[in-house]
From TrEMBL:
Residues 1-142 form the HTH marR-type domain. This is MarR family protein. GO terms for molecular function: DNA-binding transcription factor activity. Signal peptide: none annotated. Pfam families: MarR_2. SMART domains: HTH_MARR. PROSITE patterns: HTH_MARR_2. GO terms for biological process: response to stress.
Length: 156
């Protein structure tokens, strides 16, 4: 193996390390900006809820977890003030989980932080290399887009 080659197992570890560094730094900055209780799983759940809201069952489907597991996450987010349960206008027996202003604030702040981190990576490796990396990742992943089920996937 030459100096420039690396073993195949290193690629997923490097990609995961990059992911972790971005997520960990995002949560460090969120904590400093008034959201110390936020965890990565909360962010995925709030993305699954979306700006339109969703039922606990739909949150579970989007996250790839059971309705019960999604319900526990929603319970935690509700206790922290990030979501609330509202009557479903189409079904009087059902509830829709919606983001509160605090939840929306954390998502807005996260978006700004991700932009800052992207700029920091561009400063470290160069804008052209970062854009090429992003483009190459879109190519090799088949443009799958955002997947919210990472937590369930890791959980087995």
């Amino acid at each position: 193996m030459s100096e420039r080659e690396s073993p195949g197992y290193e690629l997923p570890l490097l990609l995961f390390s990059g992911f972790r560094s971005l997520i960990d730094e995002t949560h460090r900055r969120l904590a400093a900006q008034g959201h110390p209780e936020m965890r990565p799983a909360h962010g995925f759940a709030m993305q699954a809820i979306g700006v339109e809201g969703a039922s606990a069952s739909e949150v579970g489907r989007r996250l790839g977890v059971s309705k019960q597991a999604a319900g526990k996450t929603v319970d935690r987010l509700e206790a922290m003030g990030y979501v609330s349960r509202q009557p479903d206008p189409s079904d009087a027996r059902a509830k829709t989980v919606v983001l509160t202003e605090r939840g929306l604030d954390s998502l807005r702040r996260s978006a700004v932080i991700f932009e800052e981190l992207q700029s920091e990576w561009a400063a470290a490796i160069g804008t052209d290399r970062l854009r090429a990396l992003e483009s190459d990742l879109r190519t090799v992943t088949g443009g799958q887009g955002l997947r919210l089920d990472a937590q369930a996937w890791f959980g087995g």
